[in-house]
From TrEMBL:
Residues 46-57 have a biased composition (Acidic residues). Transmembrane segments: none annotated. Residues 65-75 have a biased composition (Polar residues). It comes from the Bacteria. Residues 1-25 form the signal peptide. The keyword Cell inner membrane does not apply. Keywords: Signal. The keyword Endoplasmic reticulum does not apply. It comes from Salipaludibacillus agaradhaerens (Bacillus agaradhaerens). This is Lipoprotein. Residues 27-91 are annotated as: Disordered.
Amino acid sequence: MRKYRSYFYCNTVILLLTMFLVACSNNSSEESSNEPSDNTTVEVGSENDDSIDDNEDNNAPNEDSTSNYSDSQPENDAKNDNANETDTLSSYSSKEIEYARVWSQLGPNQDIDELNVQHIPSGSPINPEDETSANYPEDVIQLSGSRSVDGSVTYSGNGDGTINLYNVPLRWDNNETAEVDENFMQEFTEEIIEDTELVQIDTGNDERVIELINKLSNQIE
């Protein structure tokens, strides 16, 4: 009987110890699961930081885009100016525009009543009143007003915005020197050819160009 009681007491102690150990193990597991994971915290923080950085990058102004727009403005303005000029003078011929621009820049008298145009072919005498005169080496154009005081401009166009300017008078006066020296007129007109000046013609003011075009009275071929 005493042996049986000892056996019963031993089993009871073992059972109690086992239950105690199981309870301790469960408490440790619950505490462990309730504690935050260091790795998880770091990952969440990292994702949030990346998201903020992405938003800041998307909201930041595009400096290159702004710079390109600013740099392109002068070019766009220049194109618009050229388009406006083309539209303003589009109803006139290139020759009419040329005559008006040449006179606007080089005409001796800008206050003219009319603008006359005479085409002189190559080989024509520079002074048609003197048979000893040298001849034009190319086709030229002579612009003049209706009065002697208006003067004239004699030139040939080069097709690139420049002209060859001949210093030819509108009226030729009788010269006593020519009567004494029969070679005078030939030498004088040859010097005119040698002293031809290359001149760049500006586009000028459109309103002034149109005003002069409206004063064209004839274009003698």
